[in-house]
């Protein structure tokens, strides 16, 4: 399974990741959401290089232009609610794609342990299509595994691109071990070494959903 970590190469992408992490910049939810969106746009551009293309003829006012255009169908899928700004960024570039939304969340017990609960999925058929499955944080990897399996109830994809802005080494290894290798590519912004006792990525950026949309009850 190929793992592409965009933050390993110097580019403006690193500035957006730095601002997503910055505790002072995080105080502005609009900027936090916009940074997630901009990161999504960069992911979309990089993923587009891996798609199938075919030659097309474009009629201009002065003649004909031959160019290579993407020839595959794309479905952009995100885990609610934190995935919405990242989803928007991906959709800004894959503007002709279909869309899917998955509701999954951590259900905590009194002792602080949690399990991932799945509520519903809204998705078109993904048979033979390229699926881009996005969630800002890849902590333990459990929610991404659940989301991937939920998507498979909607068909058999041609290829799946898993996208996360920040992940843990443990989460990446979990996905590599739990999901099939032959038709999945992982795209990360940055990979951090540790998870704390609550399974939050360290240093990470905190709770992406709360930072984007405000703190939630429960």
From TrEMBL:
**What is the protein's given name?**
Uracil phosphoribosyltransferase
Q: NCBIfam families, from UniProt?
A: PRK00129.1 (NF001097)
Question: For this UniProt entry, which segments traverse the membrane?
Answer: none
State the protein's purpose: Catalyzes the conversion of uracil and 5-phospho-alpha-D-ribose 1-diphosphate (PRPP) to UMP and diphosphate.
- Keyword field: Allosteric enzyme, Glycosyltransferase, GTP-binding, Nucleotide-binding, Transferase
Q: Which reaction does it catalyse?
A: UMP + diphosphate = 5-phospho-alpha-D-ribose 1-diphosphate + uracil
Q: Which InterPro entries match?
A: PRTase-like, PRTase_dom, PyrR_bifunctional
The biological pathway it contributes to is: Pyrimidine metabolism; UMP biosynthesis via salvage pathway; UMP from uracil: step 1/1
On whether Nucleotide-binding is a keyword of this UniProt record, the answer is: yes
What the entry lists under Gene3D superfamilies is as follows:
3.40.50.2020
Task: Provide the E.C. number(s) assigned to this enzyme.
Answer: 2.4.2.9
Organism this protein belongs to:
Labilibaculum filiforme
